[in-house]
Amino acid sequence: MAADACQRVAIVVIGRNEGERLKACLRSVMGKAETAVYVDSGSVDGSAQFAASQGCRVVELDASTPFTAARARNEGFAFVVKHAPQAQFIQFLDGDCELAEGWLEQGVSALDARLDVGVVSGHVREIHPRASVYNRLCDIEWRREPGEIRTAGGRFLVRTAVYAAVGGFRPDVIAAEDDEFCIRVRAQGAKILMVDAEMARHDAAMMRFSQWWRKARRAGHAYAQVYALHGRGQERYFAEDCRKIWFWGLAMPALALVLAPFTYGLSLAAAVLAYTLQFLRIYGHGRQRGWTAGDAALNSISVVLSRLPALLGLLAYHWRRWRGNAPTIIEYKRSSPGA
Description:
Layout: H1 3-8, E1 9-15, H2 20-29, E2 35-40, H3 47-53, E3 57-60, H4 69-83, E4 89-94, E5 97-99, H5 103-113, E6 117-126, H6 133-141, E7 147-148, E8 156-159, H7 160-166, H8 177-187, E9 191-202, H9 209-230, H10 239-263, H11 266-288, H12 293-305, H13 307-323
Parallel strand pairs: 1-2, 1-4, 2-3, 6-9
Antiparallel strand pairs: 4-8, 5-9, 6-8, 7-9
Helix pairs in contact: 6-12, 8-9, 9-10, 9-13, 10-11, 10-13, 11-12
């Protein structure tokens, strides 16, 4: 990367027990920017020590305050502002990702070309998409069309001034914190741009159904929490997602079961038909986007089946909110050995 651009960008990596994934991540970022910071959320696998050994600045979060990705990014930002105030842009990256060669040059160029854009993101690819159907699902989820978008995901390049203007992430949002952040960025008048270039490679490391289930449950919690913050505004953010979870995850099966004795089981058959039609509709959308039949079918099955764990996550959020309990992170990955 050119020396001028190198000084203009700082990199903030966040992680928790990422092990070998973090090693690959840090090796991909070191030397790409004058300042690289690793923010660790209570890892017990030696992640912080490894980062320090690579010459990366390390911030270890105090365990007395709940860990969230949002909090970690804010702490990384605060470190950059204090120790590298010349940085005009910050690249956020998760510890399970590797930064693509040449991305920072393309991201900075996109921001320089359009002063109305506050955040840019690029394509993310799975490193091992064929290792499991769950990794393949993640790879499908990453597919996005370039252009102006509503949310950039947790990995993006942002103007330091824009991040400061909106106050960074809300540290109490445990998932979809990127959606919540981007809502406020757009409310300030800044645009979010998807650049048609590879930004990062991601290692989902999802090999078991239980991991997929927890990820889907976390998504339901995220929809509920962000909807509670922004769902009644002009955008009705996540309102449709929550409605679908309530209907397909609770109302439809409950109604079918309640009516079964009175309809001689026909209500159950009607529910099966409704879920089948839902599958075909989602499958059709995937095919319209140019996906293979296999990818479209796999995505459709995942979306239909995810309504139940998402419902549990949604209910968990409302239960915690009613009881006044602070939400806690929902993890779905094990530590990668070897850090």
